[in-house]
Design goal:
9 helices; 547 residues; 32 strands; Jelly Rolls; alpha+beta; 17% helix; five-stranded antiparallel sheet
Amino acid sequence: ALTHNGKSKVYVGDNAVFDTKEGQHWSVKTFTFANVQDGSILEYAYRIETPYLFNFGGWAFMNDIPTIYSELHTEIPGNYRYNRVLYGDRKLDVNHAEIKLDCFHLPGFKLAADCESATYAMKNVPAFKEEKYMLSKNNYMPSMKFELRDVIHLDESRTTYSKSWNDVDHEFQYDKDLGRQLKYTSYFKEQLPTSIASISNELERAKAVYYFIQGKMAWNNETAIIQDIRVKEAFEKKTGNSSEINLGLINALEAAGLNAKIMLIATRDNAIPTKQYPVLTDFNYAIVFLTINNEKYLLDATDKNTPFGILPFRNLNVEGRVMDFKKGSFWEPIIPIAKNMHYANMQLSADESGLFSGKVNEVSTGYISVDKRKENNDFRKEDIIKRKQSKNESLDITNLVIENEKDLEQPYKESYNISLHEQPVGDKLFLYPFLMQTYFSENPFTAEKRLYPIDFGFPIQNNYLVSIDMKDQYEVVKVPANKLLKLPENDGELSVVYDVSGSKVNIRLSIKINTQSFAPEAYKSLQEFFTELIKIQTNEPIELKRI
């Protein structure tokens, strides 16, 4: 590796190459370039010799800096055949393969074997720029991946590895690290509280099983679907990887007389699995697919803050594969819960000194309640108050009360008293009514254009009600204009209404994002939507005059 600075070339020394352990089975090799300046050209090449025949990795043609030329060259023994998948929407500039004679030598054999020598390259690839609210960059960065399809042995027999889903179903069913881990229903039947078996309603019984496993086991932040899965041992230790917890949940649900199956997914930080043929390395996570009276429920018991029927946010990645060992596996969409609401009601009134104080009630449901619990449950109330006050210097908060901290089936509720210390400008006071920020406190879409789809993960609704009683201390000089803005295809709506009646001002702000994903073509509409929202929240005060 070297750095080109005009006529100067600076080589990377051995002391600039580092190995870092990343997870149980992987390490990462990194290196640093010296004397890098604007306009420098970074040139490097590396060679991998690997025994991992099933998936020896791939090659990303795009990086976070512009790339003049990016090439992958492979030499693969001719009897090893791979499926190749090109990701992204960019075409190869070089795509050439040929037979290379006598390139591969086997110990104990005099004659050398032939290889397939292939070169894949792209030229003048722009830098990849990550955008807010997007799925994994691996969906969009041009890259090539390989998975072993079959091997032709010296006796001309063939072993097939990349097979149909029917073949995969059969292998998983009897695999010691996955399929066989579903044979512990008798064990889990003994572990379940006897009270669960007596619940006649199947949905309530399923919830009881889910919360039992969720409360009993702790996730060690590791994922595995192909190996290192020991359900019984993990349950006894009360900790395990994602598959151990969720396969334990499947066993427990089956032990309770319910119909549960494995669903393989790729988490949001991974590319969406290809549908061309089974590529098992596309999947890195296993969740639970449960059916009750023809209703479908997707479950993951690794997160202590997610209620029954709500997956952790990391799992919201389009679709997964349900492993039905009797009828055959099938693709199943991952549809997030629709009701994700944040509701705030603020009642303010002026005292004789002209200061405003009052009460705020907040209610959160769905994924917003999950976020609230993650933010608050490990903190003292004093710390939560400080965090809220840090968003508005003129605000004092007291008497914070939180309801349903641990009851995941109920909305997360907060109530507290507030006092405002807005400074008047002469005899006027400019009051910004949206003191407690909505779900969006800033505009995430400030770039001029958008290249990739927008994905919020789930639909969002925010209702904000404000009632201001000025008593006989102020009169209204001016309120902002009412507004209504709709996204195309009824995908969202923004409205704000100001109503002045006597000494009172009532305000209603409503934000609705009705779908979680948008095509890049919708970017301008979304940009206008959020620009207007932030303007309403931060730049449009109510103008009052002291009486």
